[in-house]
Design a protein that fits this description.
Blueprint (H helix, E strand, L loop, with lengths): L3 E2 L9 H7 L2 H8 L1 H15 L2 H11 L13 E5 L2 E3 L5 E3 L3 E8 L2 E6 L7
Parallel strand pairs: 1-2
Antiparallel strand pairs: 2-5, 3-4, 5-6
Length: about 120
């Protein structure tokens, strides 16, 4: 089994979907996404451990991918990177994952690792 490396995938809801499914408080948080992301990036780059900053920089250096594209189906090497908040930056160890398309949409499945999705 060959794993592919996905440079960076931000899974953001489509606006029309968000307006009909999200709670008003969550919709308001998404409206402030750009400012919150900028603040989190500043916290992560300024206060993160050197190895975590390197992992974040590597993830951000790739070509962005379209979330839920049929091209993303298959097994990948994934990594969770948390920015801002209690800890400025945490880059967890890579894990195996799988994206699968069906008539009901896309499924993200975590195959290894200790962190929950």
């Amino acid at each position: 089994m060959r794993l592919r490396l996905l440079p960076l995938l931000l899974l953001l809801p489509v606006s029309a979907w968000a307006e009909t499914t999200l709670r008003p408080a969550d919709s308001a948080r998404l409206d402030n996404f750009d400012a919150a992301f900028g603040d989190a990036m500043m916290q992560g780059l300024a206060g993160g451990e050197a190895g975590d900053v390197a992992a974040l920089t590597r993830a951000l250096s790739g070509q962005p991918q379209v979330a839920f594209s049929a091209d993303l189906q298959g097994e990948w090497s994934c990594r969770t990177i948390k920015l801002g908040g209690i800890s400025p930056l945490v880059a967890y160890s890579p894990f195996k994952c799988r994206f699968t398309a069906s008539d009901r949409g896309f499924t993200f499945e975590k195959l290894t690792g200790s962190q929950l999705t």
